[in-house]
Design a protein that fits this description.
The protein is mainly beta. It has a single domain, classed as ApaG domain (Immunoglobulin-like), CATH 2.60.40.1470. 5% of the residues lie in helices and 53% in strands. It is built from one helix and nine strands, in the order αβββββββββ. The protein starts with a helix and ends in an 11-residue tail after the last strand. The N terminus and C terminus are likely disordered.
């Protein structure tokens, strides 16, 4: 498929209203959240969300993910930041054309929130660069929620 400006915009639309897709410097990041009711307890204001992240290297050189920075905001407006090395205990090397996928989780005290952030990477020559993680939505009932997509 030939990518023109018109159909490129469609490529950046997520599959559903809660997910996100972002492309920065030849690195595509797709985030897909899932509410896990079995691990949640609304009576204790505990809502458990899992999310799957896919990082695709569309560049011509290998890249390594060094660290992450998350911004998490719940529906009460409480903002949390999480910074740390790697993801799920790894600092993966992603070769050209490869996709690295991992799953992690985020508990909230409200039934809705957002996550977004950045990854710090280095390219094959050791040059640092930042990759955006687009905002995605943590919603207990995504089909009925009016919070997302504003």
């Amino acid at each position: 498929m030939v990518h023109t400006k018109d159909n490129q915009d469609n490529l950046l639309q997520p599959q559903d209203k809660t997910s996100s897709i972002a492309i920065t410097d030849g690195v595509k990041v797709i985030a897909r959240p899932i509410y896990i009711p079995e691990r949640s307890d609304a009576s204790r204001s505990y809502y458990y969300f899992s999310y799957e992240i896919s990082i695709e290297n569309m560049r011509e050189d290998p890249i390594r993910l060094l660290s992450r920075h998350w911004i998490i905001i719940d529906s009460d407006g409480v903002r949390s930041e999480v910074k740390g090395p790697g993801v799920v205990g790894e600092t993966p090397l992603i070769r050209p054309g490869e996709t690295y996928t991992y799953t992690s989780y985020c508990p909230l005290t409200t039934d809705f929130g957002t996550m977004e952030g950045t990854y710090q990477m280095i390219d094959g020559k050791g040059n640092p660069f930042t990759v955006k993680i687009g905002r995605f939505y943590l919603a207990t009932n995504a089909e009925e929620s009016n919070h997302y997509g504003k």
